[in-house]
Design goal:
By secondary structure, this protein is an alpha+beta fold. Helices cover 40% and strands 16% of the residues.
């Protein structure tokens, strides 16, 4: 199939491919948000009990994603030759609220295979390019199989104008190698009409995919939820069955001989059905001796449901690399701190893998930012690296002890010890300035403000004595 040759053809081409995938992405998003509708109860039971019993949904999909995302915090960008983070790139990052939005992008990428970072010029401040994080529900990027880079991308979104009754306004943004084109469309049908254009001449589309679990033959990615959803659905089924069993047999069931459902009425005077009688903890046996007798069954034991859910939780724990205590497994003897950290080794390593994959997307986005700032590609930024917060959870005392010992042995510098201790670049600069001021005051060293250049003697007449000068 030939690639599109015109901008309108690109819009149509990308929209059609995106539409084929949106349903799957929405289903994954619903699983994360615990909105997926799965019918586990028999229709007759559901009809009888109505709102008295709802489907049970265990939040394992959300836990799997959040346990990884909570360990993915960007703290800056730097070159290997630089001793500290790049202040200007971090300024652009923060002015675009990327501290907050990057977390949302990580959640979307882990849940729905990928997210996107869009970069564009800023008409209000040319030195601060715009950078936004976009959902895969709105954006699709076409990947060149040769270069594995985006060759075109499309974002489609709508505005409701404050009222769902009004006609929606539909927008689209087409990202191409040398221009970004903005479109508007009124109503559901019709063609997108161009309303603006950004001629950036970058040579590549200013949008970067952040792909989760990419494969060599499939760069669209894979959701973290894929391997655990069958187990989560099974656990929801068992938990729902347990609630139905609790409704019917967890409390003692009383039996009455010689009475049938037609002999009983509800509050409205209607004859009761057999199921209604069971829900009322009554077992009626009409064809019995005329002398009415009552008896009682022993309440059911629901431990088999608990054991099944525990077995499923252990499988989820092993597949998702979650420590057992994340899923509620406890013992009579609480685990030590060392044991807890040992159980987190696989989760920490998995988070570090995500840092490397997602860091590449962040670094490419910042290269485009610098290109929009300076008008040319900076070759030094090819070695740009993302500074991530430590994905592990060591104690403060352990980190400090290791940093001090390495510094004392001359293995690491003072700044590296400060970074290893978890301090940000801004905190390190502030601490170094405060320590320099304290040393100057302690040893009474002159500060920059105290160093006043000597003044030359005023000439009152005749030659100045060189010795006096």
């Amino acid at each position: 199939m030939a690639l599109p040759t015109s901008e309108q053809d690109w819009v149509t081409y990308l929209a059609q491919i995106h539409d084929q995938e949106v349903r799957e992405l929405k289903a994954l998003n619903d699983e994360y948000e615990l909105k997926s509708v799965k019918a586990y109860m028999h229709p007759e039971i559901f009809r009888e009990i109505g709102d008295r019993l709802q489907q049970v949904v265990i939040a394992w999909p959300m836990m799997v994603v959040d346990s990884l995302e909570e360990r993915l915090d960007v703290e800056g960008f730097r070159l290997p030759s630089a001793g500290s983070a790049d202040d200007d790139l971090w300024r652009v990052w923060q002015e675009n609220s990327a501290d907050e939005e990057s977390q949302l992008a990580h959640v979307d990428a882990l849940t729905m295979k990928r997210a996107y970072i869009a970069i564009g010029t800023n008409e209000d401040d040319a030195d601060t390019p715009r950078m936004t994080f976009e959902s895969p529900l709105e954006v699709y990027g076409d990947i060149d199989p040769r270069t594995r880079r985006v060759r075109a991308a499309l974002r489609r979104y709508s505005s409701y104008g404050g009222s769902y009754a009004r006609e929606q306004e539909h927008y689209a943004t087409l990202y191409l190698p040398n221009q970004t084109v903005f479109y508007e469309r009124t109503g559901v049908a019709g063609q997108y009409n161009e309303i603006d254009r950004d001629q950036h001449n970058l040579g590549l589309p200013p949008i970067v995919p952040m792909v989760n679990r990419a494969r060599l033959a499939d760069w669209r990615g894979r959701s973290e939820l894929d391997p655990i959803l069958p187990l989560a659905h099974a656990a929801n089924k068992i938990a729902t069955d347990m609630m139905v069993a609790a409704e019917f047999v967890a409390l003692p069931l009383r039996g009455i001989m010689g009475l049938g459902p037609e002999d009983l009425e509800d509050a409205g005077g209607n004859k009761m059905t057999a199921l209604q009688a069971l829900l009322g903890r009554l077992l009626l046996v009409p064809n019995a001796d005329e002398n009415t007798k009552m008896f009682e069954f022993t309440s059911a034991n629901l431990s088999n449901f608990h054991q099944t859910i525990d077995a499923l939780a252990k499988l989820v724990s092993s597949i998702a690399a979650l420590p057992p205590h994340y899923l509620g497994f406890t013992t009579d003897n609480p685990a030590s701190a060392d044991a807890i950290r040992s159980n987190e080794i696989r989760l920490v390593k998995r988070a570090e893998r995500k840092q490397r994959a997602f860091g590449g997307a962040h670094e490419q986005a910042m290269r485009i930012v610098r290109r929009l700032q300076e008008g040319d590609w900076d070759p030094k930024l090819r070695r740009l690296e993302t500074i991530w917060r430590d994905a592990s959870t060591p104690t403060v005392a352990q980190v400090a002890d290791a940093s001090v010992k390495k510094h004392a042995e001359g293995i690491i510098s003072t700044r590296q010890a400060q970074e290893d201790s978890g301090y940000t670049d801004a905190q390190i600069k502030r601490m170094n300035g405060e320590m320099a001021a304290q040393r100057a005051q302690l040893f009474k060293l002159p500060t920059a403000a105290d160093q006043v250049p000597p003044t030359k003697p005023a000439v009152t007449g005749g030659d100045v004595n060189p010795a006096a000068a």
